[in-house]
């Protein structure tokens, strides 16, 4: 279950890093495509199914991503709703790193379109993301990873 997947489609890249579970780190770059969005949710679904009772938190680094189109926002909302029965038992929270008002607005639009309360927290940087993720894990009585170094991880994903 541990490892890193690099996915690419038409200038959009997604890196899914499972090495620090129970923190799943997903890095989005470029403009999300329909294919990439579906592949990502397929991967997340599989990860949730394999997790069994192991709960986890995701950190989605969207700093290098373009704002999603209306169609992609709709697809994201549909996928979140569709996969809720699979993700809800194991996914404690999603922390999304966004720096611009445009991206924050896109995230808000996706949350509004989802018909149930989402456990999504928007932050500005990795330090805040790791703090939120570790706090959520501790409240769930799950030990956070001991090898999470914010500066080193942050540099490794900027490529």
Compact overview of the structure:
The protein is α/β, with parallel strands linked by helices. The protein is 43% helix and 26% strand.
Helix content: 40-55%
Name of the CATH homologous superfamily? STAS domain
CATH C-level name: Alpha Beta
Q: So what's the overall shape?
A: globular
Helices and strands, in N-to-C order? EEEHEHHEHEHH
CATH topology tier name = Transcription Regulator spoIIAA
Overall description:
- With 159 residues, this protein is an alpha/beta fold.
- Helix content is 43%, strand content 26%.
- The protein is built from six helices and six strands, in the order E-E-E-H-E-H-H-E-H-E-H-H.
- The protein has a six-stranded mixed beta sheet, with helices on both faces.
- Helix 1 runs parallel beside helix 2 and helix 2 crosses helix 4.
- The longest helix is centred in the N-terminal third of the chain and has 18 residues.
- About 3% of the residues have low confidence.
Indicate the topology.
Blueprint: E1 4-9, E2 12-17, E3 23-30, H1 34-51, E4 56-65, H2 70-82, H3 84-87, E5 91-97, H4 101-113, E6 120-123, H5 126-139, H6 150-156
Parallel strand pairs: 3-4, 4-5, 5-6
Antiparallel strand pairs: 1-2, 2-3
Helix pairs in contact: 1-2, 2-4
